[in-house]
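Researcher: Quick one. two chains, 318 residues in total.
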Amino acid sequence: MFYGTDLNTRLMLGTAQYPSPEVLRAAISASGAEVITVSLRREGPGGTGFRDILQDSGCRILPNTAGCHTVREAVTTAHMARELFGTPWIKLEVIGHADTLQPDPFALVEAARILCAEGFDVFPYTTEDLIVGEKLIEAGCRVLMPWGAPIGSGQGLRNIGGLRAMRAHFPQVPLVIDAGIGAPSQAMLAMELGFDAVLLNTAVAKALDPVTMARAFAQAITAGRLAREAGLMPARDMAQASTPVFGMAELLA
Amino acid sequence: MRIDLNGASYETAAPTLADLIVETGVEAAAVATALNGRFVPCAARASTPLTQGAKVELLAPMQGG
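Model:
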């Protein structure tokens, strides 16, 4: 599914903004996630505890390049992450604007080209733009991660039509909804639309009870995936009785 | 010499990046290093000299989304 790695769980969980390390640890466990995202920041106190949580989780680590605004920053961060975490996986973020946190698609494609050529397995945080997606595939990406909505906004899938078109346009490419998910129902919708996985952080970390919310997301994503596999009925404009008319009694006096 | 270490001014006599890490007491395997915006692999730290005004980043795993 993702660079030769099959996952049983289609929820990828971010590790930031939890009320405490203990809650983070419990939320990872409750989510059933097999992939968790991490960042690289300046060495400071408390680092050992976090490393223990990563180790104990048993999860595959997906380091990000969060906060990078240029190709060079992102590429350097990826190099550092590869050494520190011992993984070629990199969630490539090249942010175009500090307020919207919208990806810069031009720098993203350039950084992806460099990193793919160097043997990285790149997970690009992108938009639902089909041409950008094609350029990322050309650059060597084997996964695309379109946003649902701006990072941390909790708005859900803001452009359902565009995401549907992206799913149809890249039938063979694993697609992950990354960012903007606020509620389990939104994650479930992403799975019903045929996306392969959902990556989220704030919706769990900022819930009143993050551990229970992690479980709720896990169940929603499982249900959405099952619904996709089962095949949803087509919507109709008009009503259609589900109970047969045949055999109905004549009761009008 | 005075260098910039993780965004703060820092006075050091460490001749190389490896020596600097020893001096700061940071666990060498727990950080990734960059000098003047370029990644320096762990194996190259001992052969990477520091100069006045060098910008050094010592980065560690942190929470991220």
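DSSP finds one helix and five strands in chain B.
Researcher: Thanks, that's what I needed.
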